[in-house]
Design brief:
Distance between the termini: 47 Å
Radius of gyration: 23 Å
Number of strands: 0
Order of helices and strands: HHHHHHHH
Oligomer: single chain
Helix content: over 70%
Strand content: under 5%
Structural class: mainly alpha
């Protein structure tokens, strides 16, 4: 049992953390995963322990996210204060703002009409249907322009990254 825990502890923890985005709850769910695994399969010596543990961890996370315990742990915002960003951590907020700034800079390098379509799609978050309505063109035209702008953006993004 100790060997299985040592071998898969980091994997199970990362699966749990990726699902719930809470370090301490991921630790709890990791422990619950191993407890369930050893109680249901006490003498399992197969090769698919990894898959089985990941499946149990995912199910534990899903159960947790559906539970009232999860819904009750949401912290209220004091009156008169607004959340400036939806990011879970300050680091994520900084990374999101940096990425948005880079996207805007790269989109500005595009030629018209690709610049406008890319800006509306990537920066403002409009759908192709909304863009087509706003620009008074067909959806297929917007899709084509968006496809071409994506190809150009890939090149500009690589240049920006280096």
């Amino acid at each position: 049992m100790e060997q299985i825990v040592r071998e898969y502890q980091k994997l199970v923890f990362s699966v749990c953390y990726h699902q719930v985005r809470d370090y301490f709850e991921a630790e709890n769910l990791t422990q619950d995963t191993f407890l369930s695994f050893f109680s249901k399969y006490p003498d399992l010596q197969e090769q698919n322990n990894k898959n089985l543990l990941c499946r149990i961890a995912l199910n534990k996370c899903r159960d947790y996210l559906k539970s009232s315990r999860y819904r009750k742990t949401v912290i209220g915002i004091p009156e008169g204060q607004e959340i400036a960003d939806n990011a879970a951590t300050p680091l994520e907020a900084v990374l999101r703002k940096d990425t948005e700034a880079t996207v805007k800079k790269v989109v500005e390098k595009l030629k018209e009409p690709y610049r406008r379509v890319a800006y509306l799609y990537y920066v403002e978050g409009l759908t192709t249907r909304q863009i087509a309505t706003k620009c008074n063109v067909s959806i297929k035209t917007i899709q084509t322009q968006l496809y071409r702008s994506k190809e150009s953006l890939k090149q500009f993004w690589k240049e920006e990254a280096t």
